[in-house]
Amino acid sequence: MGDTNIINQGMVRKGFAVSFLGECQQLLYDMRWLIALAASLILFDFWFGIRVSQYNHIPIRKSSACRRTLNKFIDYLCYIILAALLGKVLGEPYGVDPINIAVIVILLCCGFELDSIYSHICELHHIKKPISLWRLLTSLISFKFKSIGDNVKELGDNLSDKYNNTNKNKI
Length: 171
Known about the structure:
By secondary structure, the chain is mostly helical. 86% of the residues lie in helices and 0% in strands. The protein has six helices and no strands.
């Protein structure tokens, strides 16, 4: 009698794991284009980062560059999974498609990558003061909502300064 109970518990656990993983697999399949977008942005950033390093005569260590690129891809994969789970948890109870929430979260994450690619391109073309995409977005928000815009602008400035200081040390 005890052996049957242990077997049933093991089957229930395996069944739960299979159904949960199947649902996660379906979410990732639905977001395959977001994964392709993130991968292409990461590769573009890698390419333009290498070009900027060559232009500035900074020695490039391939192992370090590849490690950071792979780490960035894994980070984006984690963001996509987190976005899918947030979409499931926050979207389904309110009747919102989980993919919509995931797309919004991922597009925000891809905005950072686009800003990085844009700054690399500006540096290659000798544009000394590029317009930050995030500052442009915050100025549009502050134009419409003054108090929210001030808070977002302050947060963006702090994050931008921190991001720029850490990236200059890594190149």
